Amino acid sequence: MKANIKNILALMLIMLTFTCDDYLEILPEGEENTENYFNSKSDYEDALVGVYDLLATTYLNNILGEIASDNSYAGGENPTDVLDWQQIDDMTHTPDNGALRSVFQWMYAGISRANYIIEFEEKIDFEGKDQLLAENLFLRSYYYFELVKFFGDVPMYLDGRISIAQTQSIDRTPKAEVYAQLEEDLTTAITSLPWEQAQNGRVTKGAALALLGKIYLYQGKYSNAAATLDQVINSGQYELLTDFDTLFLNSNENNKESVFEVQYFGAEGGGFGCFQCVEGNIAVGFMGPRFTSGNFAPYTSGFSFNVPVPELYNAYSAEDKRRDATIFDIEAFVATRPNVKYSTGSEHTGYFNKKYIPYAESNAGDVNLTHSNNYRAIRFSDVLLMAAEAYNKGGIDDTKAKTYLNLVRERAGLSPINSSGSNLTLDIYTERRLELAGEGHRFFDQVRTGETASIDNFSDKNKLFPIPRIEIELAGNRWSQNPGY
Predict the structure, then answer these.
(1) What does the alpha-carbon distance between residue 82 and residue 80 come to, in Å, rounded to a whole number?
(2) What is the residue-wise DSSP string for 174-228?
(3) Tens of pLDDT, residues 410-456
(4) Separation of alpha carbons 201 and 384, rounded Å
(5) What is the spatial distance between Cα 248 and Cα 76, in angstroms, rounded to a whole number?
(6) Distance CA 431, CA 202 (A)
(7) Per-residue pLDDT tens for 249-283?
(8) Most distant pair of Cα atoms in the chain: their distance
(9) Taking the CB of residue 485, how many other CB atoms lie within 10 A of it?
(10) How far is CA 372 from the centre of its chain?
(11) DSSP reduced 3-state for 410
């Protein structure tokens, strides 16, 4: 899918986050008029690729979900390296934090592109239109869910591209209303989506059901969550891979455990001047060790951000197969390769995120930004653990909750758990941390479950991130700020 981006660069120029009303009536040769664009099936398909394209920017959401949690330190070269990330790690971020503004802008850019299709969805008919529109609804729901996770109540735009005039006339929408819209959109999308797609990375029925189940879980709608997630579990489309060690290898992408996977492409190239333009997984290069010399193949060097804390490493038992597949112990690595040298960065712990460690590959420059590691956005093990939580916390069926939980533990080489009630709840929370460490879910899990005591400097205001100050100003100061900021 990423390789198709070059074919639609002209389209991308007209699918900006905001559109201006005073565009020229006479267009330069070779440019499309946005009002006369959707005239063929291929126009809609190219526009949908543009909506998918913004998934690449969620690398930032995922790395912040770890840095903000108790799983890792910001790291980097020094305490001011990417200061926006350091502030989030220290819980000193303000409404002027640039990383948070990027999340806000990029998610709304994806929403605006999705709304562009919705604005013209009735213009023509073609074979496969219902499925295309369903994929588009899923993607818009995905972007809105990310915004709600970060910011709570957010302005909701539904019918067309986002304009400056709209931002100055629409208030922040209560998150309950946003969730209700996402439930409606995903329910609609599910009916038109297939269980399997011919092209990797395309939205499936399983992906839409899993996201809907997650949205129910975040709202405490446990019966709805359990029933929805069970459809994914009972579909026969997914299974846990036997070997956790191979789960995150580049050669094992889009496997049977992947419910939804963000596709990254390393041959496009890119630079530091436009992160949202890069088709590679930017987070990967930022998270690698700072190797300096020696034979450190198959890995390559990185910028030492998002370093796991010793407490996370020690939370795994010695027999847990996930520990060494999740956390890269550089001292253990160097002990077997004495010619390997590395430099230590800020907050060095000796540990790195092995799930998204940079591998040496033929990626285009800047090579630190263009690694092709896909992001496993929703894994089958996550679905099992969400379903276990729903069955347990909803008081529905602890036996079934334990069955799902123990499937995940069994794959990790651990003995079954036989707790119940609130003790089982804590066991599920622990298992989510160990199973999903390094995948960007931890902070949001801690906030929604109230398990925030282990986050340094955390206070009640940090349950949400602040709305970027400049976005409030651009909206005519009509949006209120989140409490405490």
Answers:
(1) 6
(2) PHHHHHHHHHHHHHHHHTT--S--SSTT---HHHHHHHHHHHHHHTT-HHHHHHH
(3) 999 999 999 999 999 999 999 999 999 999 999 999 999 999 999 99
(4) 21
(5) 23
(6) 29
(7) 999 999 999 999 999 999 989 999 999 999 999 99
(8) 71
(9) 14
(10) 16
(11) helix
Amino acid at site 231: Q
The amino acid present at 369, given as its one-letter code, is L
Mean pLDDT, the chain, as a whole number?
A: 93
Would you say the C-alpha torsion 191, 172, 57, 221 has a positive or negative sign? negative
pTM above 0.85, yes or no: yes
Using DSSP's 3-state secondary structure scheme, residue 10 falls into helix
Q: How far apart are CA 7 and CA 294, in angstroms?
A: 40
Q: Which of 168, 116, 60 is nearest to 471 (CA)?
A: 168
The alpha carbon torsion through 74, 77, 79, 82 (nearest 10 deg) reads -70
How, if at all, do strands 341-343 and 154-155 pair?
unpaired
* Cβ 87 vs Cβ 126: under 8 Å: no
Residue of 69, 215, 188, 62 whose CA lies nearest to 134: 188
pLDDT tens profile 318-358 = 999 999 999 999 999 999 999 999 999 999 999 999 999 99
